[in-house]
Structure formats: C-alpha cells, structure tokens
C-alpha cells in the first residue's frame, strides 16, 4: 500500500498561505446621518497587505536535490514475517490490510480470510500451529497495534481474538501454547485451551529479558526450548516453564551470550538434533550453537560462523539430509559489513585457513550448504530480475519451499531436497508461481 501524499488545501484558511485582509465594514451612520458610531469593531486596524518575498540574490544557484539511493546501498532491515504454511498445506500470506490463503495441494484460487481496519494497524506476524490429531490446524495473526486473532484453518472462521500492547512483533506455536513476542521485548505465553479469553489472559505467563523489539522466535522439535531474538542482535534460549533464560553462548566479558552485531533475521532448530540452533542476521552472518546449559565451556560449534556476505532473510534445515538453506537479499555494503572473526589458534592447522577464502556470491538467491562442514552446495537465482528474496517457509515435510519477492508482489514455490520432476506445463497464477528445483 502506497503512502498517502501530503496535500495542502489552499481553499481553506491556512498559516502556510497568507490570506488577503477582510474588507472593512461600512460605517454605521446614526439617525442624524452625520455621526458614525464608535464601537469596538470600528476601531480594529486593518490587516497589513501581503508582503511579497524578496527576490533571489543575483547569481544564487539552489543546491541540486539529493540523488535517490538504490535499495542495494541502504542499510538492510528485518522484514515482518507475514508468510506461514499449515501442516495440511494451506499457505497464508498478506497483501496490504488483507489476509489471504492458498491451498498448495490443489489447483484452487486464492481466497481471503479477513480485512483489518486502519485503526488496528498492519499485519506484523503470522504463525501456523496445531495438527490433525489434536483438533485441527489453526493460524494466528498479529498486528502493529496489538490485535491478536486465531482462525481455524479448515473453516477459515475466527476462534479467538484479544489485544496485547504495544504491538505484536513475532508469533510461535508450541502445541496449544501461543507465544507472542511484543514490540517492547516482552514475551507472553498464552494457553489457548483456557476459556474464556479474559481468564486466559489472566493466567498468561510473561517473561522479560530483551531490551529491543522481538524479531524471530521458534520452539525446538521437542517443544522444551524456545529461542527468541531481537533487533539488537541478542538471542536468548528459554526452558519451558522458566522465567530466566539459559546460561548459554560464548564468553563475552566472563558471561555467556549469543550475540550478533546486527538485528537477527532468522533462528532455526535442527530437526534431527533438538539442541542444535542456528542464528542469522541481516548482515549475512550465520552462527551455530549447541544449547546445553550443563556445558561450562562455550556453546559455539566448530566451525561456529559462516559469513555469506549478503543479507539473510530466512534459514531452513533439511529433514532429508544434513544440509540447510538460506534465503538472501542484497549484498551488504562494504561500510556496513560485519568485522571479520578473530584468527583461529595456531593449532587449528590447514583445516581453518585465515583469512578465510572468499565465498560464493549468494546475493538475492536461495543457497544450500552442507552441515557441519558449511561447504557451499548450490543456489538458485530468480530468472526475471535481480531482486531480493523476502519471507520463506517450507512445507511437504521440508522438500518444498515457498518464498516471496516483495519488489514483484509475487509468491513463488520450488522443490528442494526432493526428486526432480520432469518438465511439464503447469497453470501459472499471479500469486504463486513454480520456479523449478534447487537441489
């Protein structure tokens, strides 16, 4: 939705444009016809005439307007995660102030679930939860003004709704528990099984540690640990039922921290190893951790860091092999690039050369990497134009990925970690296009 233009109505009185003086009222002659009355209105002096602005100084040349900067030269930012897919293959996405859905397993048209009013803000988060065995799938949405709503995936009807101030920044499901990360940095756990809504809000569990808006959250596969990240580059891991984060990370001033030098844009737990966590930021740095509070040493893996050189917008593990995929935006400008990592100890040998060799160019691509070697495998770039990749989500047991391209206003789908299908003619739709196979 485009921003409204600032318009000044010159037909109304305004301090921006001086108004001409009002004409003087005619003098009221009395009964005698020769004497004028001396009321207060007659003694008000007339407004001075409008003074024309002084002419420009001879030889003055106004400065040229500032040139428009290419988006590639602007500092990267974290996009609101407004793309989600249910376990039944229903994709949910937003367009302006509308929430839409698309059945990825059938050739159906795009449908609309709801439309929010301007007073409720804009969509800032979407998350799918539930399962076919626990009463069906649900989708939760949040807005910048704090409106939270839960819809049934099958019926597309609203189940619950409430508000959370100051606004919703991130959502994550853990069974029937909906975890909400607020724009203030607060994390609130709601048990959606509690009824009515007022009682559910009273029994909600609130934890605080972040000092910046939450950007991403995710529960691990076992549902006993939550990873939360914010715009200041901090990541905290929480055990279920505890209000204090785990003491994990690498040592920073004698304290363990999981810290990036930029806002976190992705957190992802390994599906086959619930204690392995990957964090990524908008400056293209990926870090790997083993979340074990019993380990008194650093929780960083070896190798512990991958610098891709391009802004990261999403990260997904493969459920079929030991690989992971990153989605990227523009290349990080040189003046904003993160500092290089410290050199490894001399005992590292030739396995970890320093400085590390230059990596592949993954700008505006979907890239696949091996784990734990972090070796580059392959990537895929859009064939139409060089535009950044936006939000992404995997489905079909992690063998397909759906990703958005905000500059095009389109959503694309492709196969990854699956069998390559023969080339067939498929029906193209304006909202979802199949673009091939990555791996």
From TrEMBL:
Residues 25-50 have a biased composition (Low complexity). SMART domains: WD40 (SM00320). WD repeats lie at residues 207-239. Signal peptide: none annotated. GO terms for biological process: anaphase-promoting complex-dependent catabolic process; cell division; positive regulation of anaphase-promoting complex-dependent catabolic process. Residues 51-66, 336-357 have a biased composition (Pro residues). Keywords: Cell cycle, Cell division, Mitosis, Repeat, WD repeat. GO terms for molecular function: anaphase-promoting complex binding; ubiquitin ligase activator activity. Residues 1-72, 332-357 are annotated as: Disordered. The keyword Cell cycle applies. The keyword Cell cycle applies. One of its GO terms (cellular component) is anaphase-promoting complex. This is WD40-repeat-containing domain protein.
């Amino acid at each position: 939705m485009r921003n409204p233009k600032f318009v000044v109505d010159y037909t109304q009185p305004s301090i921006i444009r001086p108004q001409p003086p009002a004409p003087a009222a005619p003098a009221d002659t009395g009964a005698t016809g020769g004497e004028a009355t001396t009321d207060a209105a007659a003694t008000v002096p007339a407004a001075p005439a409008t003074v024309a602005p002084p002419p420009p100084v001879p030889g003055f040349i106004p400065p040229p307007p500032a040139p428009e900067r290419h988006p590639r030269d602007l500092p990267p930012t974290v996009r609101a995660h407004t793309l989600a897919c249910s376990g039944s293959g229903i994709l949910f996405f937003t367009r302006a102030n509308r929430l839409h859905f698309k059945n990825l397993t059938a050739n159906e048209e795009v449908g609309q679930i709801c439309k929010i009013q301007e007073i409720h803000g804009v969509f800032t988060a979407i998350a799918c939860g539930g399962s076919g065995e626990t009463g069906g799938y649900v989708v939760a949405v949040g807005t910048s003004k704090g409106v939270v709503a839960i819809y049934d995936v099958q019926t597309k009807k609203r189940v619950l709704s409430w508000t959370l101030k100051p606004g919703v920044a991130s959502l994550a499901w853990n069974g029937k528990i909906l975890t909400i990360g607020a724009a203030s940095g607060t994390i609130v756990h709601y048990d959606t099984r509690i009824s009515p809504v007022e009682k559910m809000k009273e029994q909600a569990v609130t934890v605080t540690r972040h000092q910046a808006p939450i950007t991403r959250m995710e529960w691990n596969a076992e549902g006993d640990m939550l990873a939360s990240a914010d715009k200041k580059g901090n990541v905290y891991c929480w055990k279920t039922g505890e209000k204090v984060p785990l003491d994990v990370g690498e040592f920073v001033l004698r304290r363990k921290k999981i810290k990036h030098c930029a806002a976190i844009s992705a957190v992802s737990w390994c599906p086959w190893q619930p204690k392995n966590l990957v964090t990524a930021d908008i400056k293209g740095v990926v870090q790997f951790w083993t979340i074990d509070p019993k380990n008194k040493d650093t929780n960083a893996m070896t190798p512990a860091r991958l610098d891709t050189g391009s802004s990261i917008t999403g990260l997904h593990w493969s459920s079929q092999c030991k690989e992971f995929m990153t989605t990227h935006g523009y290349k990080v400008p040189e003046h904003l690039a993160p500092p290089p990592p410290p050199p490894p100890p001399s005992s590292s040998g030739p396995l970890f050369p320093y400085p590390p060799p230059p990596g592949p160019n993954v700008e505006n691509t979907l890239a696949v990497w091996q784990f734990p070697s972090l070796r580059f495998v392959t990537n895929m770039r859009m064939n139409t134009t060089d535009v950044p990749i936006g939000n992404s989500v995997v489905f079909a047991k992690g063998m397909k990925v759906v990703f958005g391209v905000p500059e095009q206003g389109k959503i694309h789908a492709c196969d990854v970690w699956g069998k390559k299908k023969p080339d067939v003619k498929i029906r193209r739709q304006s909202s979802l296009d199949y673009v091939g196979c990555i791996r």
